[in-house]
UniProtKB/TrEMBL annotation:
The lineage of its organism: Bacteria, Pseudomonadati, Pseudomonadota, Alphaproteobacteria, Sphingomonadales. Gene3D superfamilies: 3.30.420.40. Its cofactor is Mg(2+). The keyword Metal-binding applies. CDD domains: ASKHA_NBD_ROK_BsFRK-like. This is fructokinase. It is an enzyme of class 2 (transferase). Its EC number is 2.7.1.4. It comes from the Bacteria. It catalyses: D-fructose + ATP = D-fructose 6-phosphate + ADP + H(+).
Length: 309
């Protein structure tokens, strides 16, 4: 069956990428983004109100066929739950309990779908990016974002992974590097992986904002160790073929990614035969779609909503 994004007259779609610092509200013709509005993420009432107003304005002007919402989490994604589409307890002040789905999509006369931003990005990469670069589509792809927080999503045979919740890779506890005494920055768990390597965690660990950290600082070795631990857990538990690392930390330092790859190979000690010094560069890499993986994740969700009807 042809991808709806590749038809001769692609449908007009709307998408929302709701991040911790900014929101991207967009319209797309198929997968081509044709309009984009940026909104600062403040409190939920103000932020979601601006998003809903923009979408209603577009819907009145030229109706779109479906809406995709790719939001930071954690989210309730069980449609049978009373709080479907709500934000679950989050370190983001004021956002716990926010009704994301109904506030944005409730009044719109079109199908809509909500998922985490990282699940959306994983679907976009599977559909149009790294997942299509081999001889056949990747059957299991992981997308990690390391920035304001740390999140991870999966595309398994073209579908996002859901169960009791959605993947919450940011709060995994890893084996710490010898000699690393940084206490971590997560308000829930201290030294979970998000509390060790997210942007705010790096600022606390190094004492300066991320863009001012000396790339030669030896403490980067601990950061690379920690990220490699997470990637190893993903590969060992899910057999993912690719782990794409995006976000400001993930895409901002190529030297860090090289160090992560070397640490990963050493930590696995040859146990996974497909992870070698020669192959690791294709397994652990930046997203093929770059910074567009997030916005296109909302488009991918809109296409899935349209297909579901």
């Amino acid at each position: 069956m042809p991808d709806p994004a590749d038809t001769i007259t692609p449908p007009l779609l709307a998408g929302v990428e709701l991040g911790g610092t900014k929101v991207v509200v967009l319209r797309a013709q198929g997968r081509k983004i044709v309009d984009r509005v940026m909104i600062a993420t403040t409190g939920p009432d103000e932020t979601l109100g601006h998003v809903a107003t923009q979408l209603r304005r577009w819907q009145t002007d030229t109706p779109f066929a479906a809406l995709g919402i790719a939001s930071f989490g954690p989210l309730r994604l069980d449609r049978a739950a009373a709080d479907f589409g709500h934000m679950l307890p989050t370190p983001k002040p004021g956002w716990t309990g926010a009704d994301i789905y109904d506030t944005i999509a409730g009044a719109l006369p079109c199908p809509a779908m909500i998922d985490t931003d990282v699940n959306g990005a994983a679907l976009a990469e599977w559909r149009w990016g790294a997942g299509q670069e081999g001889d056949r589509p990747s059957d299991c792809l992981c997308y990690l974002t390391i920035g304001t927080g740390l999140g991870g999503g999966f595309a398994l045979n073209g579908a996002a992974i859901h169960g009791a919740m959605h993947p919450e890779l940011g709060h995994i506890l890893i084996r710490r590097a010898t000699g690393d005494d940084f206490a971590g920055a997560c308000p829930f768990h201290g030294d979970c992986i998000e509390g060790l390597v997210s942007g705010p965690a790096l600022a606390r660990r190094f004492g300066v904002s991320g863009d001012r950290i000396d790339p030669r600082d030896p403490r980067w070795d601990h950061v690379a160790h920690d990220i490699a631990q997470l990637v190893g857990i993903v590969l060992l538990t899910t057999a993912a073929r690719q782990v794409l690392i995006g976000g400001g930390v993930g895409m901002g330092r190529a030297d860090l990614l090289d160090l992560v790859r070397a640490k990963l190979v050493a930590q696995l000690s040859g146990y996974l035969p497909f992870v070698t010094p020669q192959s690791v560069g294709q397994i652990v890499r930046t997203p093929a779609l770059g910074e567009q993986a997030g916005p296109l994740g909302a488009v991918a969700l809109a296409l899935d909503a349209l297909a579901r009807g």
